[in-house]
Write a structure and sequence with these properties.
Layout lengths: L2 E5 L7 H10 L1 H6 L2 E2 L12 H8 L7 H16 L4 E5 L9 E2 L12 H15 L6 E8 L2 H14 L17 E2 L1 H11 L2 E6 L9 H8 L23 H16 L6 H15 L15 H15 L11 H6 L17 H19 L10 H4 L33 E2 L18 E2 L1
Parallel strand pairs: 1-3, 1-5, 2-3, 5-7
Antiparallel strand pairs: 4-6, 8-9
Helix pairs in contact: 3-4, 9-13
């Protein structure tokens, strides 16, 4: 059976590691009858540009998107007896969502658009000669996902969300059973599994290839070594980053959008390599709020067994990690030793700013090293609304692209530009 295997994520489920693993093993896949469209991936091994093209209506595709789709069609035609695999968390746009979909959490999306995009995708690839179109989906505990997404926004100097002030119904939760049923009705073959499997001895890449049915053909051809760990900042680093972000929001000289983006990129290049000494993982939600978020999620897991390889919603919910006590989220909650470690981190950041010829004239080092200069509410998970730049590309473009003059829209979680909004 010749299949198109689409790993759709969603975001914050180890997608980047899996995508790099796919690219690193592309030759082994080819010998096992599986092709990866290497030339259509971005610099971060992600198929996001092609995913945007596949989700768009043909008449709405840009010239670049049309070219991407045509190149993909030629690759499929050149391998008429071979399956094809593509990984792009942007494809998770097809999953329906419950909750108030706010612009900063889920830009310009609604479920009507999601279903329409799913139809565009199926129509686009159904003529390419595949016997089946597989969608690989991982399900992550929602409070953990929101924490990871919050960290991603702030650590890249892109935005700071006031999650603490939001009602629990504002947080989007995927409607799994309904999504899988709608996608199946369109003709997709959906395969779902928990992000954190009960059997933790199997690496994520091995589990995903088993979901794709290629663990057998790949046996002996690839290794499933654990990828380099992507260490997320802990709660002390996040408190320091909140202070740094407030600094560039309120104290830096007024800059045009492009100069401000460059400032944020250069700061991120410094802060990404520095974490507070002996930091601990950030737990963003108090246990009672996390439990209420989890209860909403469990409701939409009911009935997923036909798509989850026999696992019930209760089985998947049972794989979710226990939620611990909420971390200190502001400088006012730190003990003396914790405060000293954040202060030391800020001095290290400040020293590197001083060595940067372009930053030293834009950043007031005295204020940068004074954690008390920023209001308590601007630290991790603000306790009240705080000014936020927003609307500008992340300080670092993980896919290697640079924003164009009009690329000033809030990015999605994967921070990949739409092809018509940026230039390579």
């Amino acid at each position: 059976m010749r299949r198109l295997i689409l790993h759709i994520g969603p975001h914050k489920t180890g997608t980047s590691s899996f995508q790099h693993w796919l690219r690193d093993n592309a030759d082994a896949f080819a010998t096992a009858g599986l092709v990866l469209p290497l030339d259509l991936l971005n610099a971060n091994a992600n198929g996001a540009p092609l995913a945007h093209a596949l989700l768009a209506a043909p008449q709405d595709r840009t010239a670049e998107q049309t070219d991407l789709f045509d190149r993909f069609a030629r690759l499929c035609a050149a391998h008429p007896d071979t399956s094809v695999i593509l990984s792009a968390e942007r494809l998770s746009r097809m999953l329906l969502v419950d909750g108030s979909i706010r612009k900063d959490l889920d830009p310009s999306e609604d479920n009507t658009r999601r279903l329409r995009a799913a139809g565009h995708l199926h129509n686009a690839v159904s003529e390419l000669g595949f016997d089946r179109i597989d969608l690989l989906v991982l399900i992550r505990e929602q409070a953990g996902f929101l924490t990871s997404a919050y960290v991603q926004k702030l650590k890249t100097m892109n935005a700071r969300w006031d999650l603490g002030a939001r009602g629990l119904d504002d947080f989007p939760v995927q409607r799994y059973k309904e999504s899988f049923q709608r996608l199946s009705d369109l003709g997709f073959h959906v395969v779902a599994a928990p992000y954190r499997a009960p059997d933790t001895s199997r690496p994520l890449s091995e589990r995903l290839m088993a979901m794709a049915g290629f663990d057998g053909p790949l046996k002996g051809r690839v290794t499933y070594d654990a990828p380099r760990e992507n260490v997320s900042p802990g709660y002390l680093t996040m408190i320091g980053l909140g202070h740094v972000f407030w600094h560039i929001e309120t104290l830096s000289p007024t800059l045009d959008a492009r100069s401000l983006t460059l400032l944020r990129r250069r700061l991120f290049a410094i802060t990404r390599a520095e974490n507070v000494e002996a930091d601990s993982p950030l737990i963003l939600f108090a246990p009672d709020r996390a439990a209420r978020i989890a209860a909403r999620q469990r409701h939409y897991l009911n009935g997923v067994a036909p798509w989850a390889q026999g696992m019930t919603g209760a089985d998947i919910a049972g794989s979710f990690p226990a939620h611990g006590i909420q971390s200190p989220l502001s400088r006012d909650h730190l003990d003396r030793r914790e405060r000293q470690r954040v202060d030391h981190w800020l001095r290290r950041i400040s020293a590197q700013v001083e060595r940067d010829d372009r930053l030293r004239h834009l950043i007031d080092r005295t204020t940068l090293t004074d954690l008390d200069a920023s209001p308590p509410g601007v630290h991790s998970a603000p306790q009240r609304s705080a000014p936020c730049l927003g609307g500008i590309w992340a300080a670092a473009a993980p896919d290697g692209r640079r924003p164009g003059a009009q690329a000033l829209q809030t990015p999605e979680f994967d921070h990949n530009p739409r092809p018509n909004e940026a230039t390579s």
